[in-house]
Design a protein that fits this description.
Order of helices and strands: EHEEEHEEEEHEHEHHH
Distance between the termini: 35 Å
Strand order of the largest sheet: 5-9-8-6-10
CATH superfamily: Nucleoside phosphorylase domain
Number of strands: 10
Helix content: 25-40%
Shape: globular
Largest sheet: 5 strands, mixed, barrel
Number of domains: 1
CATH class: Alpha Beta
């Protein structure tokens, strides 16, 4: 395993023009996600995608319409997201960093598959970071601009989501974005938080979701088997979650299709 800076040979593809002045490890846009499934559909639309490791994180680099993209999979939680963002910036020096992935809706007008772009991010202690977002909301197209809450644990219950919305005036919740934004603020990188809703206020998440996901984003097979044995109907719940995740990943990819080009053009 390469535990330092990913080498140029294992890094972003080397075809096309080089906006970095010849540094093959440079990325135009870096993306931090928690789980591989979150960026899988978008990466499938990129050319010459390569997987490699550095600083104990998995990276995937490629090109989208000639734009150099690097995705780092942080795993869940702010501590891992913070380290992954530092690793991304150290290895690839992107000018733009995006925190992308799934989120839970906190308000009833936001549904599975809707996009939330953060104009501010708050944590459970009330720490707020403001973000300048350069495009408007379009609720008719499922695109919302508003406050994102970064929470320490998965928020499973609809009632708890409603309480968090009232307390923090947030419209969606994730577990990583504030840490990514803070690192970008410290290091002078442009930041954008883009989240797609994978669970809304129509139902509680099944209780098994709390034990199925490991801190690195891997599924705990033993926990999954145990859930099925103790509650056979959990198979249906897990299938619904997977379907929602696939919808969210596809929607995220479609939204990023236009956004990465806009962000890249803003640098030139």
């Amino acid at each position: 395993m390469n535990r330092g800076r990913p080498t140029a040979a294992n890094s972003v593809g080397n075809s096309g023009g080089d906006s970095s002045g010849g540094d093959p490890s440079h990325a135009d846009i870096g993306i931090v996600c928690a789980l591989p499934i979150e960026m899988s559909t978008f990466l499938a639309r990129c050319d010459r995608v390569r997987k490699y490791t550095g600083s104990n994180f998995v990276f995937r680099g490629g090109r989208y319409d000639g734009i150099r993209i690097v995705v780092v999979e942080s795993g869940t939680g702010q501590a891992r997201a913070r380290r992954a963002t530092h690793a991304l910036l150290d290895a690839h020096s992107p000018k733009w960093v995006l925190s992308c992935g799934f989120a839970g809706a906190l308000v009833p007008n936001i549904r599975v598959g809707d996009v939330v772009v953060a104009d501010s991010i708050v944590d459970g202690q009330g720490q707020i970071l403001m973000i300048d977002v350069g495009f408007p909301a379009d609720a008719n197209q499922g695109i919302h601009i508003g406050r994102l809450l970064t929470h320490d644990v998965i928020v499973r219950l609809v009632t708890e989501k409603q309480q968090l919305a009232a307390r923090h005036l947030a419209i969606a919740v994730d577990m990583e974005s504030l840490a990514v934004a803070q690192v970008c603020r410290e290091r002078g990188a442009r930041f954008l938080g883009v989240r797609v809703i994978s669970d809304d206020l129509t139902n509680d998440l099944p209780v098994e979701v709390l034990s199925l996901m490991g801190p690195t984003g891997t599924t705990r097979v033993g926990a999954a088997i145990g859930a099925i044995l103790s509650r056979p109907s959990s198979v249906t719940d897990m299938w619904k979650l997977r379907k929602s995740a696939q919808i969210a990943a596809k929607r995220l990819a479609t939204f990023l299709d236009g956004v990465v080009v806009q962000l890249y053009n803003a640098l030139h």
